[in-house]
Design a protein that fits this description.
Distance between the termini: 69 Å
Oligomer: single chain
Shape: flat
Largest sheet: 5 strands, antiparallel
Number of strands: 5
């Protein structure tokens, strides 16, 4: 190949990769905000359509005005709902509402699970849930997970862990894995750090992470005891 052409191709490749590295965080941020703003706009869209029907031939007929107004209406509703539920009367009303949902079999299961998950992630309640790493999808590749509870194997008595593995960018879908506790690597990440890392595809996160399980401390040799090999078996006596 012509040296000048090879140099040009290498320079082109290097600049394209530099552009991807620069644009990737911005693109991920755009996807996340587009997803969140789209949800807010869909929630407030029915009210905007009603306002457009009441006031035709106005600025409400413009799509971008409807989009912004729907987001603002949804944020206002969320603010007032949060303000009301933070008061004593609002908390009592919320408790009555939740007790009514508990009488609906299917709805109670779904609502209770989602509410518990959100409370754990936002730290509103005391919880044993913590950020861990497990080998997934193959050994040697670890995934961020939330250890939600521990249980026991009825056959062996070995402690097990229920670990929720949210998908990156879209943590609303996840895998639930049951693994032995010995396969779980504890981390020092907070829920906020883990969620930031998941939502940004790893672009935002801690600079230092506990990736490897700490090795168990080896017991000290007893005086007069035979030395141990790497697998913990006494060395055979050497022939004289």
């Amino acid at each position: 190949m012509n040296p000048s052409l090879a140099h040009t191709l290498r320079s082109l490749q290097r600049n394209i990769l530099a552009g991807i590295v620069t644009i990737a965080p911005l693109f991920v941020t755009y996807l996340i905000f587009s997803f969140l703003l789209g949800i807010l706009a869909k929630a407030g869209q029915p009210v905007v359509w009603l306002m457009e029907a009441l006031f035709p031939e106005t600025a409400l007929s413009r799509p971008w005005v409807q989009f912004i107004l729907a987001i603002l209406l949804t944020l206002i509703v969320l603010y007032f709902v949060g303000r009301v539920t933070s008061e004593v009367v609002g908390r009592k009303a919320l408790e009555l509402f939740e007790s009514a949902l508990d009488r609906l079999p299917l709805v109670a299961k779904v609502y209770g699970a989602v509410r518990q998950l959100l409370d754990n992630m936002t730290g509103k309640k005391e919880t044993t849930q913590r950020v861990v790493l497990i080998d997934f999808p193959i050994p040697g590749q670890k995934s961020i997970g939330f250890l939600s509870r521990t249980l026991t194997d009825s056959t062996t008595g070995e402690p097990l862990a229920a670990v929720l593995l949210p998908n990156a960018i879209n943590p609303t879908s996840a895998f639930l894995q049951l693994v032995p506790m010995r396969c779980v690597t504890e981390t020092d990440m907070t829920m906020e750090q883990a969620m930031s890392m998941l939502l940004t595809g790893g672009a935002v996160g801690p600079d230092v992470l506990r990736f490897t399980q700490p090795a168990l401390a080896e017991p000290a040799d007893e005086p007069g005891s035979a030395p141990l090999t790497a697998v913990g078996i006494s060395k055979p006596a050497q022939p004289r």
